[in-house]
Amino acid sequence: GQQVMQIPQYQHVQEGEDFTTYCNSSTTLSNIQWYKQRPGGHPVFLIQLVKSGEVKKQKRLTFQFGEAKKNSSLHITATQTTDVGTYFCAGPAGATNKLIFGTGTLLAVQP
Amino acid sequence: KAGVTQTPRYLIKTRGQQVTLSCSPISGHRSVSWYQQTPGQGLQFLFEYFSETQRNKGNFPGRFSGRQFSNSRSEMNVSTLELGDSALYLCASSLVSYTGELFFGEGSRLTVL
Q: Which residues of A touch B95 (CB under 8 A)?
């Protein structure tokens, strides 16, 4: 079936280091969204990318949608402890347009 | 503007029982979707409702059902509970489509004993 994998599953960084998570879909996505879920919390929408090759920035966060619309990445520059949480990508896939969430990347930031 | 409200926040049931979870979307949002989150399976789409109609459904057994009322409030029901149904059930609302920006509630954590 349709799958959206994220790598890495877990990353531990020192505060100030950069972080990147990659999202790979087995099928083409019409758009991709990114969410952040703090420990014990609920997912919070970060951004949506629609166009092939699109790049968007939000302060220290840079989001990219692949040319083939099957992969995406989230890069955080100079991580802070407030960046701790699990980052999920999600996108509607296939003819049924069902929303599929990625497996998530848990980011731990050591001060 | 109030966010998405889910009730109850926590509940414990035993195998074979049924449970009903409630979700009140953000005012003006007509799309409500439901997700199951577990450590092993991650976030999985259950179903989406828009204007009282189910528009899309995930790959879950018929024990999982839902509905939406005219005021956009939604309920989901799980019958004949199994241990594997223990999870965080998240509701999300969206202005028009569940494939756009989703606003999640805090979830209902269900434990099945």
A: none
Which residue positions in chain A have pLDDT lower than 70?
Answer: 1, 94, 96
Q: Rounded to whole angstroms, how far apart are CA atoms B46 and A87?
A: 20
- For B84, which DSSP code? G
CB contact under 8 A, B56 and A31: no
Q: Is B64 on the interface with A (CB under 8 A)?
A: no
Q: Which residue of A has its CA nearest to B58?
A: A98
- Which segments within A15-104 are labelled E, that is strand? 19-25, 32-37, 43-49, 55-58, 61-65, 71-76, 85-93, 98-101
Q: How many pairs of residues across A and B have Cβ atoms under 8 Å apart?
A: 50
8 Å CB contact of A1 and B59: yes
- Residue range A20-48, pLDDT digits in tens: 999 999 888 889 999 999 999 999 999 99
CA B63, CA B65: separation in Å to the nearest integer? 6
Concatenating the DSSP letter of every residue in A62-83 gives EEEE-TTSSEEEEEESS--GGG
Contact B99 A97 (CB under 8 A): yes
Tokens of A46: 């970060």
Question: Which regions in chain B score pLDDT beneath 50?
Answer: none
